[in-house]
Amino acid sequence: MSSRRSRGTTRITDEQIAELVSKLQQLLPELRNHRSNKASASKVLQETCNYVRSLHKEVDDLSDRLSRLLSTIDDDSPQASIIRSLIN
């Protein structure tokens, strides 16, 4: 299977890939203010992986902190009610 093919026979052009990489670059804090407007596709993909990993870690850390916080308050307290409403 070709690396340029998605499911079926739809082909992605080099221009479409370049545009997607450029859009992705704009989402990455490490590359958004990059000196040159263009980073290599491999650099953008590498930074994307790093950024997604850091976001996963941040979510895990925040989940742990929330769990610890919830374990210290009474389930029927106003604080617990506020936290539950924010989560849902």
UniProtKB/TrEMBL annotation:
The keyword Transcription applies. GO terms for biological process: regulation of DNA-templated transcription; regulation of growth. It is found in: Nucleus. GO terms for molecular function: protein dimerization activity. It holds the Pfam family bHLH_ILI. Residues 1-55 form the BHLH domain. One of its GO terms (cellular component) is nucleus. Keywords: Growth regulation, Nucleus, Transcription, Transcription regulation. This is Putative myc-type, basic helix-loop-helix (BHLH) domain-containing protein. The lineage of its organism: Eukaryota, Viridiplantae, Streptophyta, Embryophyta, Tracheophyta.
